[in-house]
Amino acid sequence: EIGFDPLKDIDSITIAAPGGGDMEKGLIIVAGKFKADKLVAKANEEAKNNKDKVKIHKAGDKTIFEVIIPEQQVPMFMMIASNNTILASNKYVTTFSTQHQHCDNNPIST
Prior knowledge:
Layout: H1 6-9, E1 10-16, E2 27-32, H2 36-49, E3 54-59, E4 62-67, E5 76-80, E6 85-89, H3 92-96
């Protein structure tokens, strides 16, 4: 459906977090071969069909998906940055402020 096989298409997963257990400032970078347009279309479809689980935010020309994960206290924010990179964090500002220096529609204050 979206042409994605994680065993073949993911080259690396990098997890970065500060010391001291402050996981709210963590960042996950998934590098590989993605069909960004198909992933974004599928995520938009999920947001339309599951508004209580997936919300959409904009950062410039990129779409940020806020995903509610069952039994997690905080949502996960994900951005399909390109055909080679997916960014994820449990805090919107941490994940995307470095990717987009200014964001007109930032749902979390800094």
